[in-house]
Amino acid sequence: MSVWDDLTGQSEAIAVFRAAADSAIRASGGDASDNSMTHSWLITGPPGSGRSNLAFAFATALLSSSPDGDETTRRQVEARTHPDLAVLTTERVIITIDEVRTLLASSQFSPSVSRFRVMVIEDADRMTERTSNLLLKALEEPPPRTVWILCAPSEADLIPTIRSRVRSVRLRVPSVQDVARLIEQRDRVSPELALQAAQESQSHIGMAHRLATNDDARRRRELTLRTVLGIRSVGQAVLSAATLLEVAGEDAKAITEEKDSEERASALRSLGIEPGGTIPPALRSQLKTLEEDQKRRATRSLRDGIDRIMVDLQSLYRDILLAQLGAQIDPVNVSVLSEVKAAAATSRPEQTLAVLDAIATARRRIESNVSPALALEAMLVAVTRKDSV
């Protein structure tokens, strides 16, 4: 089984990375090499396009003896336990300069069991300019067998000097059919559920998986759409904003709760503490650090949950607008299709466009640290004022 088999809708990018891995392996064996391989890469693409999955597939190929990877290396990379792999991902809003310093120190080590040492930075767009400049020095003069793989939504999210020192590969949004096929095969769900999850996630692979395998996630998404469709007054808009925040909080809690429990249990085992045992005072500071990291993750997860709600609402009003215009394009929200048609029949396209503008404005405000509650209230009040357009 090839390491590339689980990727979907990115045949062009896979061809680039597989050729690079093949070139690197042949060059390390003394064969003449082409220009396919370089020491620093940037994988860009919209959320859910599979940036991280492709980065780790490429890492597996580089750390293996074959451009298609081998099973042992694949398992080690999936568990993040391979001795020649270093990964920087963050649960914070930004990647700190200390985290990058630690990664840079690790990048100076020689490979221990593989031909290369591979450094992966997920969400590289979360680095500040000062942190990016620190990374820049490593990209300018890397050790001879160190390979950097950065992931970000777009090239514009990184400073120009970093962009000039990496080879950029842009991913496209996979088709709904590609995502549905992957979810059906990998998660063993019905074709109908896989297709609905792929449509409602708008081809976001991770979200499609969650919607296909988690009844509560589907319920919360449908509640979001029906709540907004039911708004008829300013008072309802304010109450609905509170409901949406509650939904986002439940979603964030569901995502982080299980992971927090697993992390704490793992930390206690590593410290030699039995489940339910007393924590010695000397070790409490380590657990406190873990708890603080988990709180930061919960904050980021809540922000991500609010943004997911915004994306879902954009898809809802996109469907309404398409219905108003009579466009023959498949809707995203098939579970509320009758309500979408009713909303389209009782409003005008320019009113729907005004709501879409309000949603986009709310997203920008929240990104600028405006209170989510205030931004949501202002956005939903716009839903009640459509008649004034």
Automatic annotation (TrEMBL):
<dbReference type="GO" id="GO:0006261">
    <property type="term" value="P:DNA-templated DNA replication"/>
</dbReference>
<dbReference type="InterPro" id="IPR050238">
    <property type="entry name" value="DNA_Rep/Repair_Clamp_Loader"/>
</dbReference>
<dbReference type="Pfam" id="PF13177">
    <property type="entry name" value="DNA_pol3_delta2"/>
</dbReference>
<dbReference type="InterPro" id="IPR027417">
    <property type="entry name" value="P-loop_NTPase"/>
</dbReference>
<protein>
    <submittedName>
        <fullName>DNA polymerase III subunit delta</fullName>
    </submittedName>
</protein>
